[in-house]
Design a protein that fits this description.
about 60% helix; about 210 residues; two-stranded antiparallel ribbon; mainly alpha; globular
Length: about 210
């Protein structure tokens, strides 16, 4: 536990870096074979409505993935401490730092540029890899959630989705302390929790739909 508390970096942090390097080498082979402009976006009908220069494809993969890794690393800094929740949260963020940027790089650095040759099929490959990366990132989070100490006054049956959701209709609290990390989370046994979650997610869903239909 002490080692996990003090060690911010992990060998798993090399995975996104190695994937980014692989994407650069991959593009050195494919860029000469691609058309000068490659698809950047499809609308809901599957028609390309935005294009980009093929030489900018590596930047599209690199900068967002680096930004995502830095953001998750800053969360790791906030979790340094000696409480069980912080220690387990730090371990969970290692998996997220490793797999989420890697999945994005695979999508945007390997597969998306090939859409200039193979169309939407290449994007489908990338989305599949991104989904697999998300699953691989969540497996350690769920395992660590099961190791986390329970919220005061709760039972084992109050936790769902591998311990990720707190669900206790008998608990009058709407917000409860997180078992992993710091801060508060919803008690999904209270109907108001679903109302607030919907209100928080609705703007994101609307923006995504509008971008997809534009």
């Amino acid at each position: 536990m002490d080692e996990a508390r003090t060690r911010l970096f992990s060998p798993w942090d090399l995975l996104p870096l190695a994937t980014l390097g692989g994407a650069w080498l991959w593009l050195q082979h494919w860029i000469p074979l691609l058309p000068e402009r490659i698809p950047a976006h499809w609308n809901a009908a599957g028609v390309v409505d935005s294009w980009m220069d093929k030489h900018g494809s590596f930047s599209v993969a690199a900068w967002p993935s680096v930004g995502l890794w830095i953001l998750l690393f800053l969360f790791s800094l906030a979790l340094r401490g000696d409480t069980p929740g912080k220690i387990l949260g730090l371990k969970a963020l290692v998996a997220l730092r490793a797999f989420l940027p890697t999945g994005f790089i695979a999508l945007m650095g390997f597969c998306a540029p090939l859409a200039g040759l193979y169309g939407g099929k290449a994007i489908g490959w990338g989305v599949g890899i991104m989904g697999l990366s998300l699953v691989l990132a969540l497996i350690p989070v769920i395992r660590l959630s099961r190791l986390a100490p329970p919220i005061e006054g709760s039972r084992d049956s109050d936790y769902r989705w591998g311990g990720l959701l707190y669900w206790n209709a008998a608990d009058p609290r709407l917000f409860v302390p997180k078992r992993i990390g710091v801060g508060l989370t919803f008690n999904f046994g209270r109907p108001m929790a679903w109302v607030l979650m919907t209100a928080l997610l609705a703007p994101v869903v609307i923006v995504v739909v509008m971008l997809a239909l534009r």
